[in-house]
Amino acid sequence: MTKDEIKEKLTELGIEFNEKMKKDELANLLQAELEVAELEQKPKKYIVVHDFKDLEDNGAIYFKGDKYPRKSVQVDDERIQELLSTNNKIGKQLIKEQE
Q1: What's the predicted TM-score (pTM) here?
Q2: How far apart are CA 2 and CA 49, in angstroms?
């Protein structure tokens, strides 16, 4: 990529940069921003910390240590937040983010 193409891409992504930056500095900035964006897009993984029956997953039973959700199931952020908190029918944190 040329320096102008890199600047154009940074501008497109809404990333501020100093016009006096050298090409390699701009390229490093773009690469770093793309890596951050990629990490943010990766789906988070969760692990079950307390056995429960998921009433929103056709009654699937999850046991402590299981991955959540099952591969074939799509779960919205609201449901994830409910299971991460004690604000659910069991009143306990049922899953945690896997490190």
Answers
A1: 0.58
A2: 50
Please give the tally of structural domains in the chain: 2
Domain co-membership, 8 together with 21 = yes
Closest by Cα among 20, 64, 27, 23 to 46: 64
Element at 54 (helix H, strand E) = strand 52-54
Q: Are residues 37 and 50 in the same domain?
A: no
User: Each residue's pLDDT tens digit in the chain (99 positions)?
Assistant: 899 999 999 999 889 999 999 999 999 999 998 888 776 776 788 999 999 999 999 999 999 999 999 888 888 999 999 999 999 999 999 999 987
Residues in the chain: 99
Are 7 and 28 found together in one domain? yes
Domain that holds residue 62: 46-97
Question: Do 97 and 44 touch, CB atoms closer than 8 A?
Answer: yes
Whole-number Å distance between alpha carbons of 70 and 54: 11
Instruction: Check whether residue 60 and residue 19 sit in a common domain.
Output: no
